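User: Can you help me understand a structure? I only have the sequence.
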Amino acid sequence: MIVILVLCFSAASAQVVHQIYFDRFTHYTIDDWITYAPGLEMTTIDIGDDYIYFGTRNGGILRYHVFDNFWDYPFTTSSGLRSNRIDYLVYHANDNKLYALTSQGIDVYNKAFNYWEPTALTEMPPRRRPLQTDITDFIREKNYNFPEFYRPVNSELPGFFTNLPLLFRPPDEILDEHNRIFRLSPDRVVDKWRNLWLGSTGLGPARANLNNMTLNFYPQSLSNIEPRDLVFDNHRVWITGLANGPEPVGINVWDLNKNDWRYIEARFNFGLHNDNGNTIVAHTDYIFCGSELGLLKYHKKDQRWNTFTTADGLESNRVNHLFFFDSTLYVATEQGFNWLHPDYSQINESKDTALDNVPIYRITSTDSTLLFATRDGVFEYAPERDEIIFFGTQSALMDLYITTLGMHNDTLWLAGHYGIMYQDRLNDRWTSFTQIREYVFGAIHDIAFTKGHVWFASDNGLLKYDKKRDYWYLYTEKDGLADRRVYKVVPDQNDLWLCTQKGVTIFRWNRKGRME
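Assistant: Let's start by predicting it. Here is the structure, written out as tokens:
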């Protein structure tokens, strides 16, 4: 009997989870970690040699390349800033450096070395100003020929024309199509091409053409949400999360080809009951989002939203996870599971009541069955028989409170309150990592796979397991995460897209010659 047990499971040798021990800026390049955080509220603006820099309240520094006319990735804590709250910016032409006054002190970006570092400065360097003769000429002519580097106050602004649905109401108000009032930020600056660059309190950066008096806004960041999940849909990224701040909030859609953002808010979209989302998936014709108040369905062709709730047969209005299996959409809720067959118009439920009123956190599949992660362990569901059975593990860990699971190349991975384990399904052999909880003691939310590596999204950071080396590494803010609370890992070739508490971080993990 003892021999049988030894063959069925094993506890892995002592596990050590490594963390950063090297100098970040000699190990990573500045764009190995890129974060898009909520950055619609502008605080400060300055002009560099190649870029217009926009400081934000929570999203770091947005950057527009004036010669190539594109929005580059933002500078954030992932780039080396000490804080994403930027109170003041100065581009100092004499030394070709960008200075940022953050909530943690003054940081400086050195273009020659391409990294940020703290300074010992207690005061910011002076900004460039127009020549006094240019200011005198402008005042005498009483027009809008503001000189380069001039920063007009509200009373000096013309009556700008805005593209519908926005409306400019002097001296500094912007009304959107829902009659919400946003304001122009007080810091603004004129460039050499007669563009006035401005910020706003919720619409992102803006550019006014002083030749034709047009004013356009360019949102370039997340709205005020804490991301929980994202999905790629052709050239678009759909991002869902929980509202955390003033409007706009909602479901974010980032068009990667056009590099523009839009925000879908529940109170302005008929059929969309809630926009606080936990999970999102894409289909050829639809986008599905699991929210705090039901299952949301977006019909792409008709551009129409529908919401399924308990009134339609959903087991619970809180949806934790969505999973496609043989074109059927399975819905994990706080009180059981449901499914929708194509054409995704009707909620179905199992006649087997074994998981009624049981929170289901994640779903994965074998070739013919579904596996559910729950507080009571793992359950297996056979759709053809409509039958639920308990999936007992033979691991060295308690198989209760399983929070996430994933299948990859005939290997089933489980993670939960008591640690991490996997099953080699070809040999029916279990391996358990009993000591992981000494290093990663928060919840583990998601599992993802790349060639040779398993990734775990946790409350303590992004955990990587290199199976060939039997090596564990935990990435945190010290490496470049926006926040150590990671909820979702989405592999994209050589990149990982990570939903964290403070933004979406893109980690270029597979750079040649680098190893953690």
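Now, to help you interpret it: The two ends are 42 Å apart (CA to CA). The chain has three domains: 1-30+393-516, 39-221, 226-352. Let me know which part you'd like to focus on.
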